[in-house]
């Protein structure tokens, strides 16, 4: 379960990266603000607060960040109070011949900032796949946004207000089950766990 001590007991805003998002005032009013990767719009139309920054730790995006000598100077990285790596570390034998998992390197990169780094565990991934399985074929591959949102909701006390979810377009890399994820978010909204705020057209 993700440590939510820094987000309790106030409001929680989870900010996706879909284009068209313009909700700076509402997002900045939240007690805790979760953002993802390059956080487009940060410092402008999506506000300038961030308490948790999720950084994908597998694949080419992290490899690019590791090669960027100015990555730690990015405003969203500097302003984050904690980081989330969505994928558990792969065993060495599963991380070759081509390296896909950069967890160890990402933790070393972030270490000089002296801020907490949370790694989402495999049991959360398994639960996420079970959530999505009824609306998919084969083995679902949840998106980072889905995994992080599920982690926060799993650890969020019921007495707290629903999480406010902005800028989720449910579109992108075709390997993610976007329709199933959209259905899950809608069900969570009906259950009172979150409120979805669509992007402007």
Adjacency order of strands in the biggest sheet: 5-4-3-2-1-6-7
* Termini gap: 35 Å
User: Using DSSP, what is the number of strands?
Assistant: 7
Q: Which term fits the overall shape?
A: globular
The main sheet comes to: 7 strands, parallel
Compute the number of helices: 7
Radius of gyration using CA atoms only: 16 Å
User: Which series of helices and strands comes N to C?
Assistant: EHEEHHEHEHHEHE
Summarize model confidence as the mean pLDDT: 91
Task: State the secondary-structure class.
Answer: alpha/beta
Helix content: 25-40%
Residue windows where pLDDT falls under 50 for at least 5 positions: none
Taken as a percent bin, the fraction of beta residues is 5-15%
């Amino acid at each position: 379960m993700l440590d939510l001590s820094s987000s309790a007991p106030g409001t929680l805003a989870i900010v996706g990266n879909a284009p068209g998002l313009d909700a700076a005032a509402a997002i900045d009013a939240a007690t805790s603000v979760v953002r993802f990767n390059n956080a487009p719009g940060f410092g402008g139309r999506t506000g300038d607060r961030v308490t948790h920054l999720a950084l994908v730790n597998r694949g080419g995006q992290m490899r690019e960040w590791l090669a960027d000598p100015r990555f730690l100077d990015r405003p969203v990285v500097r302003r984050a109070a904690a980081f989330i790596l969505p994928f558990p570390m792969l065993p060495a034998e599963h991380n070759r011949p081509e390296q896909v998992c950069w967890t160890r390197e990402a933790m070393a990169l972030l270490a000089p900032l002296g801020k907490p780094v949370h790694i989402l565990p495999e049991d959360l991934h398994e639960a996420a796949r079970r959530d999505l399985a009824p609306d998919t074929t084969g083995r679902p591959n949840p998106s980072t946004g889905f995994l992080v949102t599920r982690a926060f909701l799993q650890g969020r006390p019921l007495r707290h207000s629903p999480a406010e979810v902005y800028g989720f377009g449910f579109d992108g890399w075709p390997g993610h089950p976007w329709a199933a994820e959209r259905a899950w978010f809608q069900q969570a909204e009906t259950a009172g766990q979150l409120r979805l705020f669509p992007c402007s057209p």
